[in-house]
């Protein structure tokens, strides 16, 4: 027996011995892959029900896409930044418990709006729309809210478990046209493009109805207050509130095996002494470990690329359900610029009713803090078309170099933006969703049927929509399913 123990110790598998000998006799934890809002919410709900959990995260910090660059006491979000107190009910609870300051925020950033041509650098202040246009748009907003309550509210929810009506599988543009909305695109296109939600001519209306709740529509129309918050700090504090859940950061999952009665996960933990509250009987220098799980939660958008990256043994059913999942290539940046605080810059469109081309260029720039010269930027790339982060970064520098000045001063000269000015830049696979073709043939029926198979669950924006609110709800939902 001593010889067997010594061999296991040498190869770093001491954790595996008692777990494999008698797994039913142990209180096995739920293994959660991903420490973003969905994964943390799932762990919190499991703890509240007396269940053990352990989280594995590849990044150096918790929060998933909720990362932030800090400068001179200000924060510059590289991920989520806004919420509404009306429909973001679970988010509000977490923000309140995290005790992080919130700030009222308007759709135009609280200042003057400027358009820029990303190829020429020409800038122009956004002119006020006519009273006639505003009246017509206002009437359509009222009609939209009425339709939203009648048509969408009854089927809204995590996983769309009440079914997806055929008329909600069409593109957003087609649905708006069918329902006689002429002015509405001018309101929603600027609310889709900067936030990473794609081209309204492609994205199914199902998701835009989930996004554009009545309060969010009124926010973008300037009639409802939204709130800005440092979500990175929010979820750091949320993670700190977990009492029993272990969180392994900077962790590489080497394989996940679900061939037995319980999922088994092997992982590489570079700093076990930092994230573990127990002492190992022996420690191999590679820090490779085995964790046997009672269940498994994949708390990230389940594209095949991401699942393969987690070395999941993907089943045929999972191939069919997740193969069609598409994501938008989306970039966020923190850039030192000379553009003044109080001015919000938005990419110029050919018309208010046509989105800009998705070529990886920056679509929005705004300075959130009056005390810092760092501006937050958002760029978006073509749907399902690979693009490198370096290509997008070069486009960012090239574009901003043309507008890096005070546009109100006709004699001001733009200053080039350099690598040193780009103090933060991240690429995200954003907004996981199904296209019309998959929704028509029951994509969410297949997705929901997979929940719990091989003791595996999926929690991300795909469960509803890519917002903090639905990521949190997805985490709670799968945790309740396990319990």
From TrEMBL:
Q: Which InterPro entries match?
A: FAD/NAD-bd_sf, Zeta_carotene_desat/Oxidored
Q: Which UniProt keywords apply?
A: Signal
Gene Ontology molecular function terms on file: oxidoreductase activity
Signal sequence region: 1-16
PANTHER family, per the entry: PROTOPORPHYRINOGEN OXIDASE
Protein name, as recorded:
FAD/NAD(P)-binding domain-containing protein
Please name the source species. Answer: Mytilinidion resinicola
């Amino acid at each position: 027996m001593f010889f067997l123990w010594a061999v296991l110790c040498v190869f770093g598998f001491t954790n595996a011995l008692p777990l494999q000998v008698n797994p039913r006799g142990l209180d096995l934890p739920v293994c959660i892959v991903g420490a973003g809002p969905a994964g943390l919410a799932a762990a919190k709900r499991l703890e509240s029900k007396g269940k053990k959990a352990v989280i594995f995260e590849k990044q150096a910090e918790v929060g998933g896409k909720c990362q932030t660059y800090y400068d001179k006491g200000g924060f510059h979000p590289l991920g989520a930044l806004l919420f509404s107190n009306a429909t973001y009910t679970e988010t509000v609870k977490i923000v309140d418990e995290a005790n992080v300051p919130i700030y009222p925020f308007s759709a135009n950033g609280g200042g003057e709006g400027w358009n820029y041509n990303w190829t020429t650098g020409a800038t122009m202040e956004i002119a006020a729309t006519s009273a006639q246009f505003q009246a017509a748009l206002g009437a359509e907003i009222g009609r939209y809210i009425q339709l939203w309550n009648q048509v969408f509210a009854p089927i809204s929810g995590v996983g769309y478990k009440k079914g997806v009506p055929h008329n909600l599988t069409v593109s957003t543009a087609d649905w708006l046209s069918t329902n006689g909305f002429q002015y509405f695109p001018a309101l929603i296109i600027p609310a889709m493009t900067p936030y990473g939600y794609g081209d309204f001519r492609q994205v199914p209306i199902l998701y835009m109805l989930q996004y554009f709740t009545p309060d969010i529509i009124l926010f973008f129309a300037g009639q409802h207050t939204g709130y800005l918050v440092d979500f990175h700090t929010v979820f750091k504090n949320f993670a700190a509130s977990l009492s029993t859940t272990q969180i392994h950061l900077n962790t590489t999952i080497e394989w996940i095996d679900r061939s037995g009665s319980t999922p088994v996960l092997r992982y590489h933990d570079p700093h076990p002494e930092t994230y573990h509250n127990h002492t190992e009987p022996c420690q191999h220098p590679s820090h490779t470990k085995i964790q046997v799980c009672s269940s498994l939660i994949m708390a990230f958008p389940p594209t095949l690329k991401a699942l393969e990256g987690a070395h999941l043994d993907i089943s045929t059913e999972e191939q069919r359900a997740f193969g069609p999942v598409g994501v938008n290539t989306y970039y966020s940046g923190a850039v030192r610029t000379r553009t003044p605080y109080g001015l919000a810059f938005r990419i110029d469109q050919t018309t208010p009713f046509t989105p800009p081309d998705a070529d990886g260029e920056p679509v929005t720039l705004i300075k959130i803090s009056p005390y810092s010269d760092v501006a937050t930027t958002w760029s978006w790339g073509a749907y399902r078309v690979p693009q490198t982060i370096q290509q997008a970064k070069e486009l960012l520098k090239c574009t901003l170099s043309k507008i890096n000045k005070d546009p109100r001063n006709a004699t001001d000269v733009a200053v080039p933006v350099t690598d040193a000015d780009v103090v933060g830049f991240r690429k995200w696979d954003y907004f996981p969703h199904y296209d019309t073709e998959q929704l028509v043939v029951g994509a969410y029926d297949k997705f929901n049927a997979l929940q719990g198979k091989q003791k595996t669950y999926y929690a991300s924006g795909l469960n509803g929509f890519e917002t903090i609110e639905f990521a949190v709800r997805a985490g709670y939902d799968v945790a309740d399913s396990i319990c």
